[in-house]
């Protein structure tokens, strides 16, 4: 299939590109940029005047399954509507992704849907129990690039060290969700003034930074490649920056909502702000923003977590933490650009080639020859997020009924149109 | 807004009438209770005029109003103060304006919750008619007919005087 | 008597507790309530103290209304005070004791509440182990049901704070020149949080907390208190000493080594009470652990006003319940007028 995208503003940070130019796709790959290749006759022309044309987004953390309603089908539809062409899903869920069989199953399911690509992240230990190594060779062979134990504790540091050594042998990146279990247990908000006022158990910043420091030292000791998922504190950014300066192979991502919100929104015990890691202080948020600007943090992710209504309708501490984010990742990121927090190029980089590199994927780029995963975006379009417009099966987001700016018009995976917005 | 009658003159007459009613009923040792706020000012004057030995009682009827469900609790409610037992006593109840009769009903309900009186003599400075309940004062200072948009109000506590004026907001009758 | 908006309406932002006129419709926490409104509660409570002194201690204010005591945490004292308060307002009272571990038959809290509504309740009095549970209930039930917080998690115990304020006002007159010290487990105390907020809102110039670090919540000074770890320094020039209950679990969670050590450092003995002003009053929300937080000698001394606190409890709860019911009805009436 031959396809051309005409007149858009092409932004591809992987090539340092930001200009108005045309793009040509053939047989699922980027054929050329700029002038139409000789003899190229398009089957479909997409007019992209006034739009941004970017590589499809790579989301490092999006849960695609929930207890009842959300299934891969609904969530991947939501993903491509949000311009996301590759989704990395965490290993928790039922069944836990700790074997090649489960990884293969997930990838097959995704392939059959012909929507976004799915890159499952494997479990570091069997059943995520923190005691036995998972079959990491099998996981890698089935397609995992990364393994993690999520937030669940390892039995002890000896086990953790062995897991890292084994992962290194299999050339797998280890993902850390840094949190010291005993310091964080029972906590549901940031430990600080807001938690004190509301009488809610706090998760102190040191619960995260202690785990980051520990992980960094073990990373140095074992030589494994490490990635930190959804860091939330200023000190974490500092520690990771220092490690990177010393040449350690360490990367990090941040959830988009951590770049926008702080714990001051918790005033009314609104459970849609019950998140994990919790929203923290302005100082932390500012440091995370700086971390993205400086490149200490390579990726912005959605941390998409579909939850049923009942999960959020209870007293705050009894609710399940998390919010959906596939369909708000783009407009919220553009909001950061609009507010002057990030340059547009840097923002797109953190959604495309940044996360792709973390995962070791040759994606997130519009370089000729690469798979044609593309998003065409109307950056000015204003729309309201409602339960009806959400494609995700779950509606747990605090941004419901808010006006957002920036919407995807077309999404392509492997040169196929997997999403097309209704024309106005 | 007009200042009408001389209130003190009226009160002097009322005091004589109260004495007459007491004599008729054979009452010698009454207690005096004023309904806040206007009734209390009047009762203070009457208390001296009647030469009563026991201290005056003050009744706040906020908790007994029958329109609580419609207009809610008065934010300036203060405690009632009855420095005597009402059980078996003869009470002279004083209010400034009687209109619908509901304030008097609330006052009587409250007095009965303190203890069953032997009798109640109701003295009102002004009776403007417009009853909604079968309640009549035993002693009245002056009967007044009001236009639909008028109301009468007692000013005090010093220099007691009656004011006749236009109604401003919707108010419920006393 | 008119029902126009009281003057403090302008100071009430979109606060769940207030109706469109700025009147109380739920009583969930001291936070967000103005000095004027808090003073109104105290003044109204004064009137109800007078009612309690009569032979017939009832007024007909809530006659025909149904008040449901929803106690998810067991508590005989607080619940019976609320029950008594409701009955003195002539309300019909229903007591529901729900085991904290799970609502019966696995029914969710929300479903259970919806069945309550079907029983035509006018008011819920809620005590729950989770902070924010009364807020959740106030937001989730029909707008017409007034919710009174009888204590939620570590967050708030506003009626306790108000009865404490009433007690202080009775003995000290006003809050303007007072130095107040709160001693003990501030970290876990919903009572302390509400007391601090009430004292500050009523204009107390100096509020102190006295506790070891392990019993102080993060950034507590931002609540507007001065922090002391030493009892002697903390009690100097204090007019009101408020002691808190120490629960036995604290010794088990590596927060305190022993009751004995707590008593040595922070227990209020007659000798230590002399570090405060000679006319200082001593308060405790009850029940007292004699010999841990406070000596029997002090608890029974003339400086202790603990028994007054109990009497004031009923009056304050009557005040809050009648004000909230009044505010709810005013809101209902107003929203019906607006409808075309």
Features of the shown structure:
heterotrimer, A: 424 residues, alpha/beta, Urease, subunit C, domain 1, TIM Barrel, 2 domains, 8-stranded mixed β-sheet, 6-stranded parallel β-sheet, 13 helices, 19 strands, 29% helix, globular, C: 340 residues, Rossmann fold, 4-stranded parallel β-sheet
What's the arrangement of secondary structure elements?
The complex is a heterotrimer of chains A (424), B (174) and C (340).
Chain A: E1 2-12, E2 17-26, E3 29-33, E4 44-47, E5 52-55, E6 57-59, H1 72-81, E7 84-89, H2 100-113, E8 117-120, E9 122-123, H3 136-142, E10 146-148, H4 157-169, E11 173-176, H5 181-184, E12 189-190, H6 193-198, E13 202-203, H7 205-222, E14 226-228, H8 234-245, E15 250-255, H9 282-294, E16 299-301, H10 309-312, H11 329-338, H12 344-351, H13 353-358, E17 374-384, E18 403-413, E19 416-420
Parallel strand pairs in A: 1-4, 1-5, 6-7, 7-8, 9-10, 10-11, 11-14, 12-13, 14-15, 15-16
Antiparallel strand pairs in A: 1-2, 2-3, 5-17, 17-18, 18-19
Helix pairs in contact in A: 2-3, 7-8, 8-9
Chain B: E1 2-3, H1 7-25, E2 31-35, H2 38-50, E3 57-59, H3 68-71, E4 90-98, H4 102-114, E5 119-127, E6 139-143, E7 150-155, E8 161-166
Parallel strand pairs in B: 2-3, 2-4, 4-5, 5-6
Antiparallel strand pairs in B: 1-8, 7-8
Helix pairs in contact in B: 1-2
Chain C: H1 35-52, E1 66-71, H2 76-88, E2 92-97, H3 109-117, E3 123-128, H4 133-140, E4 146-152, H5 158-172, E5 179-183, H6 190-201, E6 206-210, E7 226-228, H7 231-235, E8 240-243, H8 249-252, H9 259-266, H10 270-273, E9 281-283, H11 296-299, H12 306-338
Parallel strand pairs in C: 1-2, 1-3, 3-4, 5-6, 5-8, 6-7, 8-9
Helix pairs in contact in C: 1-5, 1-12, 2-12, 5-6, 5-12
Question: How would you describe this protein?
Answer:
The complex is a heterotrimer of chains A (424), B (174) and C (340). In chain A, strands 1, 2, 3, 4, 5, 17, 18 and 19 form an 8-stranded mixed sheet that branches. Helix content of chain A is 29%, strand content 23%. Chain A has 2 domains: 2-52 and 372-380 and 402-420, Urease, subunit C, domain 1 (Roll); 55-358, Alpha-Beta Barrel (TIM Barrel), CATH 3.20.20.140. Chain A has 13 helices and 19 strands. In chain A, helix 4 links the parallel strand 10 and strand 11. Chain A has helices spanning 72-81, 100-113, 136-142, 157-169, 181-184, 193-198, 205-222, 234-245, 282-294, 309-312, 329-338, 344-351, 353-358, and strands at 2-12, 17-26, 29-33, 44-47, 52-55, 57-59, 84-89, 117-120, 122-123, 146-148, 173-176, 189-190, 202-203, 226-228, 250-255, 299-301, 374-384, 403-413, 416-420. Chain B is of the alpha/beta class and 174 residues long. Chain B has a 5-stranded parallel sheet. In chain B, helix 1 packs across helix 2 (38-50). The radius of gyration of chain B is 16 Å and the shape is globular. Chain B starts with a strand and ends in an 8-residue tail after the last strand. Chain C folds into 2 domains: 7-157 and 312-338, 3-Layer(aba) Sandwich (Rossmann fold); 158-309, Aspartate/ornithine carbamoyltransferase (Rossmann fold). Chain C is globular, with a radius of gyration of 20 Å. Chain C starts with 34 loop residues before the first helix and ends with a helix. Mean pLDDT of chain C is 87; it is low at 1-14. At the B-C interface, helix 3 and helix 4 of B face helix 1 and helix 12 of C.
């Amino acid at each position: 299939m031959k396809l051309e995208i005409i007149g858009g503003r092409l932004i591809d940070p992987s090539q340092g590109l930001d200009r108005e130019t045309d793009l040509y796709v053939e047989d699922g790959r980027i054929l050329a940029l700029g002038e139409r290749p000789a003899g190229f006759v398009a089957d479909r022309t997409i007019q992209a005047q006034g739009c941004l044309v970017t590589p499809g987004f790579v989301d490092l953390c999006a849960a695609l399954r929930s207890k009842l309603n959300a299934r891969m089908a609904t969530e991947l539809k939501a993903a491509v509507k949000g311009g996301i062409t590759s989704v990395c899903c965490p290993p928790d869920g039922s069944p836990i992704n700790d074997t090649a069989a489960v990884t293969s199953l997930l990838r097959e399911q995704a392939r059959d849907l012909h929507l976004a690509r799915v890159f499952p992240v494997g479990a570091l230990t069997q059943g995520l129990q923190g005691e036995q190594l998972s079959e990491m060779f099998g996981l890698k062979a089935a397609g995992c690039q990364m393994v993690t134990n999520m937030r669940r504790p390892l039995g002890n540091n000896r086990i953790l060290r062995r897991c890292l050594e084994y992962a290194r042998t299999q050339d797998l990146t280890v993902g850390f969700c840094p949190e010291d279990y005993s310091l964080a247990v029972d906590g549901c908000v940031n430990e600080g003034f807001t938690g004190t006022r509301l009488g809610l158990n706090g998760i102190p910043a040191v619960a995260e930074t202690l785990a980051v420091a520990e992980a960094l030292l073990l990373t140095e000791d074992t030589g494994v490649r490490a990635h930190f998922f959804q860091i939330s504190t200023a000190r974490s950014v500092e520690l990771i920056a220092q490690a990177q300066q010393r040449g350690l192979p360490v990367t990090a991502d941040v959830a988009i909502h951590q770049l926008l919100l702080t714990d001051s929104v918790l005033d009314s015990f609104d459970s849609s702000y019950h998140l994990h890691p919790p929203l923290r202080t302005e100082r932390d948020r500012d440091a995370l923003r700086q971390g993205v600007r400086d490149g200490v943090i390579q990726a912005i992710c959605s941390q998409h977590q579909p939850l049923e209504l009942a999960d959020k309708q209870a007293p705050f501490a009894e609710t399940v933490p998390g919010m959906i984010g596939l369909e708000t990742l783009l407009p919220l990121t553009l909001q950061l650009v609009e507010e002057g927090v990030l340059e547009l190029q840097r923002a797109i980089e953190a959604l495309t080639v940044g996360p792709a590199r973390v995962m070791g994927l040759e994606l997130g780029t519009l370089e000729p020859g690469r798979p044609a995963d593309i998003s065409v975006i109307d950056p000015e379009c204003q729309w309201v997020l409602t339960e009806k417009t959400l494609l995700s099966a779950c509606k747990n987001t605090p941004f419901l009924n808010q006006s957002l700016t920036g919407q995807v018009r077309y999404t392509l995976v492997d040169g196929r149109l997997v999403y097309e917005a209704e024309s106005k | 807004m007009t200042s009408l009658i001389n209130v003190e003159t009226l009160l002097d007459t009322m005091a004589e009438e109260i004495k007459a009613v007491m004599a008729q009923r054979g009452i010698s040792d009454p207690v005096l209770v004023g309904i806040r706020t206007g009734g209390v000012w009047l009762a203070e004057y009457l208390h001296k005029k009647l030469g009563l030995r026991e201290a005056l009682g003050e009744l706040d009827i906020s908790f007994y109003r029958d329109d609580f469900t419609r207009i809610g609790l008065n934010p300036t409610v203060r405690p009632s103060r009855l420095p005597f037992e009402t059980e078996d006593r003869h009470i002279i109840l004083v209010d400034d304006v009687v209109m619908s009769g509901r304030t008097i009903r609330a006052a009587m309900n409250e007095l009965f919750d303190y203890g069953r009186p032997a009798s109640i003599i109701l003295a009102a400075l002004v009776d403007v008619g417009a009853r909604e309940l079968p309640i009549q004062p035993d002693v009245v200072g002056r009967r007044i007919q009001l236009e639909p948009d008028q109301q009468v109000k007692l000013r005090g506590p010093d220099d007691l005087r009656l004011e006749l004026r236009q109604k401003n907001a919707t108010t419920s009758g006393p | 008597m008119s029902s126009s908006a009281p003057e403090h309406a302008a100071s009430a932002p979109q606060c769940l507790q207030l109706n469109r006129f700025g009147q109380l419709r739920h009583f969930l926490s001291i936070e967000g309530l103005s000095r004027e409104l808090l003073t109104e509660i105290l003044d109204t409570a004064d009137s109800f103290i007078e009612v309690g002194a009569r032979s017939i201690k009832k007024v007909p204010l809530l006659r025909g209304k149904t008040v449901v005591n929803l106690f998810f945490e067991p508590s005989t004292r607080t619940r019976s005070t609320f029950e008594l308060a409701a009955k003195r307002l002539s309300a019909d009272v229903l007591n529901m004791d729900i085991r904290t571990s799970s609502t019966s038959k696995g029914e969710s809290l929300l479903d259970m509440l919806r069945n309550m509504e079907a029983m035509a309740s006018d008011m819920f009095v809620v005590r729950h182990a989770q902070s924010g549970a009364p807020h959740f209930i106030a937001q989730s039930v029909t707008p017409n049901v007034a919710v009174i917080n009888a204590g939620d998690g570590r967050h708030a115990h506003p009626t306790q704070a108000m009865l404490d304020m009433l007690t202080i006002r009775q003995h000290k007159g006003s809050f303007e020149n007072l130095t107040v010290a709160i001693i003990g487990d501030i970290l876990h105390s919903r009572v302390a949080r509400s007391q601090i907020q009430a004292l500050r809102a009523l204009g107390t110039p100096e509020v102190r907390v006295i506790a070891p670090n392990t019993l102080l919540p993060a950034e507590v000074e931002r609540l507007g208190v001065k922090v002391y770890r030493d009892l002697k320094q903390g009690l100097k020039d204090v007019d009101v000493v408020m002691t808190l209950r120490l629960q036995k679990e604290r010794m088990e969670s590596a927060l305190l080594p022993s009751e004995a050590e707590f008593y040595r450092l922070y227990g209020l003995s007659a000798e230590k009470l002399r570090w405060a002003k000679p006319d200082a009053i001593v308060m405790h929300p009850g029940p007292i652990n004699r010999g841990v937080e406070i000596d029997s000698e002090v608890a029974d001394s003339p400086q202790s006003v603990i028994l007054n606190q109990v009497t004031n409890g009923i009056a304050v709860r009557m005040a809050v319940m009648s004000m909230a019911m009044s505010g709810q009805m005013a809101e209902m009436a107003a929203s019906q007028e607006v409808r075309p």
